[in-house]
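User: quick one, sequence for these tokens?
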């Protein structure tokens, strides 16, 4: 089943409806063009996580990933290209215990808790319910990450990664990496400010 995921529109309204149809309650996805607008960020709170969309390169930068990490932290490897956006969003949702994610995702989280990240990715992309909801938002043009193929002429391939605060630490969750990336302790700092430093550094590259 893993090859039966279609590309979907990169649109916050689509993402909000997608997670609502999976069963997530009282959560919306908003598009943010800059993290410098403090008033905007304040109006959007509570912010559970950030999804960063960037241009994908065939040879991604090697990052220092955690081999061992908190067993309650959900991280899954991406094993299918077109599930990229959905997987990044679910990686944020499944690391926010204060969110009512609904029975489908709650059962998935419990079922895969003891699995390694590769197996979690396989289980996720083989979920009939999540796949059907994802595919209900199909778009005809490829947008998500393209693996082992060059982007079409005049176009680019893109990838989604998540930033989420979890138990006082900030993590970068990228399914193409072997494990989660610890960005630092949040302490008394606003975690969004810590994430902003990392995102600005990556954008500068």
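Assistant:
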């Amino acid at each position: 089943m893993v090859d039966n995921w279609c590309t979907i529109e990169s649109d916050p309204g689509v993402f909000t409806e997608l997670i609502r149809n999976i069963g997530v309650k009282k959560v919306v996805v908003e598009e943010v063009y800059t993290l410098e607008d403090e008033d905007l960020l304040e109006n959007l709170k509570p912010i559970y996580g950030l999804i960063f969309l960037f241009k994908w390169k065939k040879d991604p930068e090697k990052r220092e990933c955690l081999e061992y990490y908190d067993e309650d932290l959900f991280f899954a490897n991406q094993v299918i290209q077109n599930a990229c956006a959905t997987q990044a969003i679910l990686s944020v949702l499944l690391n926010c215990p204060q969110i009512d994610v609904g029975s489908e995702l709650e059962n998935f989280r419990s079922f895969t808790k003891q699995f390694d990240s590769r197996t979690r990715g396989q289980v996720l992309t083989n979920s009939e319910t999540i796949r059907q909801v994802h595919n209900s938002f199909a778009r005809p043009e490829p947008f998500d990450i393209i693996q082992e193929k060059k982007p079409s002429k005049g176009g680019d391939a893109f990838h989604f990664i998540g930033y989420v605060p979890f138990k006082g630490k900030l993590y970068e969750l990228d399914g193409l990496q072997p494990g989660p990336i610890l960005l630092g302790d949040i302490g008394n700092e606003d975690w969004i400010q810590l994430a902003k430093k990392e995102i600005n550094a990556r954008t500068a590259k």
